[in-house]
Write a structure and sequence with these properties.
Layout lengths: L1 E7 L2 E9 L7 E4 L21 E5 L17 H15 L4 E6 L1 H12 L4 E7 L10 H8 L1 H4 L4 H13 L5 H12 L5 H13 L2 H7 L10 E6 L7 H10 L4 E5 L6 H4 L1 H13 L2
Parallel strand pairs: 3-4, 3-5, 5-6, 6-7, 7-8
Antiparallel strand pairs: 1-2, 2-4
Helix pairs in contact: 1-2, 5-6
Length: 274
Amino acid sequence: MRGEFIDVNGARLYYYAAGTRGGGEPIVLLHGFPTSSHLWARVVPALPDGHRVVVVDLLGYGRSDRPQGRPLGVRAHAERVLELLDVLGINYACVVGHELGAGVAQALAVRWPARVARLALVNPVAYDEWPVREVRLARAMLPLTRHLPATFLLTLLRRELLRGYAEQESGARSIDKYLKPFASADGRDALVEHLLALDAAETAQLAPRLKDLVMPTTVLAGAHDPFLPPAVAERLAADVPGAVLEVVPDARHFLPEDAPRAVADSVARLLARE
């Protein structure tokens, strides 16, 4: 496993490659808000052999560059991922996205379908049913919170994120990793940029075109997700022709961490579909 930075239109994106090259399609893993490539740490080793695995930190998250005014919407992230795949010489891949990353995956599949061989949407944002209440509340408070120490905003966010984990102790450790890049004045400003960019209008625009998707698709949800209920996943699975819906019991929002084996097995089944 190795990690490196790639310049995409003047911004450095961090990614790491794993897995074993073979005849199988590459697998691209996209995280959501406000996480990073660490989200997939326990999924990657459980994925099937014979596939090149690429795990990305989206712009402004993890080790990738700060946004610095660059667009952070679903389509903007999708365009950068597409450019990253071009640089890596990946013509098409099985794209797996969690939450916001699932919105990015939908944008890739709808706008550049030839580049998405298979699609897995995990705890997905979709339609106009996000951002969740907690994010809307945080945005409403921005006139106040953006001038307060970063620790204040992060304390509120940490408490809400913890609700998304079935296993609270390991969840708390992961949250500390995800929020570390935002624990400064510059980091707070970057977090504000992310909050302001979470726009359901983008996925709502994609919704009428979901019926045109032809690639094998799986929609995966945690049965007890407090932020994006399984009903969203059910609607997505109904709208994408031939999509398979899988609901994982006893799991919450951060499914790749709550149930990494279930996610990896679901991707394996997707890869085996004709």
